[in-house]
Amino acid sequence: MANLDEHYDVIVIGGGPNGLTATAYLAQAGAKVLMLERHHEGGGGLVTEEWSGFRFNTHAKLMLMMDVMPPYADLALESWGCRYIQPDVAASVLTRDGRAMTFYSDIDKTAASIARFSPSDAERYKEVMADWYTVVNEALIPATYSLPIPMLDMVVSYQQSEIGEMVNEMAEETFLETLDAAGFDNELVNTGLLHLGTMFGIDPEGGLGFLLPLLATRLLHASVIVSGTHQLAASISRAANASGARLERAAEVTKILTDGTKAVGVRLASGEEVRATKIITTTDPETTFLELVGAEVCDAASATLSDQARNWEWEATSLFGANFALSERPQITAAKFDPDADRALIKIMGVETVDELLAHINGAKAGRLGQAGVGMTLTDFDPMQAPVDLEPNSAVASWETLAPFEHEDGDWDDLQDKAAQQALDTWTEYAPNLANATVIRSYVNHPKHIAAKLPNMKRGSIKHGAYTPTQMLSNRPNADCSSYRTPIENLYVAGASVWPGGMVLLGGGYNAAGVVADDLGIDRWWDEPAYVTKARKKGLTG
């Protein structure tokens, strides 16, 4: 790389979604910003690979918050090349006898689908969703894009409103208890909603019940990035570059330099050292505090910091993904029962009851790869992700399912082809035309690959750490660092291991940028969303 300047206002370690977001906001605020990314390109989990014209989104595929996240408008990402599509048919639960229950972004349309199975649950769905959307839109989304309230303060503050009391109650529940409180009788309704809440690896028996409404409703409004998910990262990079930020790839940070307990700069793998007034890192707690800073400095700054990093809990499961370039798109049998099921973005296969879903989840925890999973044909929504000019009937189809980091049958590299064929065989049970389709290209992304490509996802932990009551809200990554400041003076955290977590929400980078701007004494050029201001007046956010 070309020689770096001696001093910056801000150094950002990591060019994933949150690192890029913090870089772009602070550069536009007038700060002199250097972003350092160890990989040859930025984006973290926003990976789009192309083979012979077929584009595979090998990690992140669905965006949960595109229509509400502040950076999309603040950074004018559409003008920098990022566009997204929100399918109106969000998900379908396919049954082995050729039927389907279809979930839409529209509550009434979903209720009509449910009514084919259970008229009483159809009416109940409207009532439950009215409550869930209120909680999500008025409390949980605003909390995503603001500082978390300390846990005890949050409980007290939330008691002042009906919405807050609902969140408090759910916070004490597991997903299963929150779902049970919804009162649905039909197994497909319960299975569909629980699958949406757990498909990214959250334990349905681990607490934090309020995350079930958040994930379920946001997946009902999930987005596909046109041309592939990497376009989101590329657009933020362009916005950052245009504001004067310096983005360096293939630049691995090996040490955060300190003067006593104050961060003063970084050392790169090349041996080069660069100084900065403020340093933001998006690395996981173990890497940040035990490797980059060092336990001795952490212990001098805080009696608990290094121990908290050592005790960081990784996720019990990871993800297995198989991406196929097919000579024809999958055509599900259930389309005869419900044509809209064939248009669903998320097709849930292999589970029809809550017990089956729990067995699938617990099997992954125990080291087994199950038959159930989610099929997505992204070219249904963005045909240009396949070379339609040369292969006019082709499609890119992706299979995703919970998986163990350590497979009970051996090494993932030896098992990946068998696992990919298993996924295709399961899909073929629901879409028989796949038996005669040609697999033109394929790419497998198993848990071992995830950890190798994205080192902060240790043990294939796609959210940089488990979502548990002791690792969420103002406990993420710990009480000392949940304000994005750390006990190490001038060092800030902003990755998926801080609130609001992973899954490409951009909240960590957005929130950290505001804190650092305040501490630098520079103006925030952006206005907070009206929904955050409204929530703050009700005591629902910090």
Textual characterization of the structure:
The chain has 542 residues and is α/β, with parallel strands linked by helices. It folds into three domains: 7-48 and 62-81 and 226-312 and 461-537, FAD/NAD(P)-binding domain (3-Layer(bba) Sandwich); 106-222, no CATH class; 316-456. 36% of the residues lie in helices and 18% in strands. It has helices at 17-28, 70-74, 107-115, 119-144, 151-158, 162-171, 175-182, 187-198, 211-219, 230-242, 285-301, 305-310, 354-365, 412-430, 447-453, 507-520, 530-537, and strands spanning 7-13, 33-36, 48-51, 54-57, 84-85, 89-94, 100-104, 224-225, 246-248, 253-259, 262-268, 273-281, 318-326, 346-349, 373-377, 395-403, 439-445, 491-493. Strands 1, 2, 9, 10, 11, 12 and 18 form a seven-stranded mixed β-sheet that branches. Strands 7-6-14-15-16-13-17 form a seven-stranded mixed β-sheet, sandwiched between helices. Strands 3-4 form a two-stranded antiparallel sheet. Strand 3 (48-51) and strand 4 (54-57) form a beta hairpin. Helix 1 (17-28) packs parallel to helix 10, helix 3 runs antiparallel to helix 4 and helix 4 (119-144) packs across helix 6 (162-171). The longest helix has 26 residues, at 119-144. The chain is globular and about 65 Å long. The two termini are 41 Å apart. The mean pLDDT is 97.
